[in-house]
């Protein structure tokens, strides 16, 4: 029965990491699309922590400013629903390769990968400690050097359901 519990706990952990990664990626996708398509804005869009956002009353001041920068297409300092929807329609149109007004999974993948490129480059640079354009195994593993040690609550040197 312990093996089943451990398998379940591991599966749940992986599921949570996947969900968290997907949510983070999805929230930043618009940021990357805005940058690529000639609209301003970087980091902190939609109030993602760790990118200089200041949360006030449940919303992000930086996130709102980034949205204004990204979607204020007439540059009047105000943001309308029409501007948001128009900019998003243009983003869809850019990746609609067969111009049928919809995105297939392949077209959506191209949109998503384009949007995520800047974040991927940022993450690569975070790993590349010496700035030589190469990520060594040591640099890649740096964040995980003490992973077990930090989470091993019972001190047995492994993670399991007892932790």
TrEMBL record:
InterPro entries: EF-hand-dom_pair, EF_Hand_1_Ca_BS, EF_hand_dom. Pfam families: EF-hand_5. Residues 1-25 form the signal peptide. The keyword Signal applies. Residues 59-94, 115-150 form the EF-hand domain. GO terms for molecular function: calcium ion binding. Keywords: Signal. The keyword Transit peptide does not apply. This is EF hand.
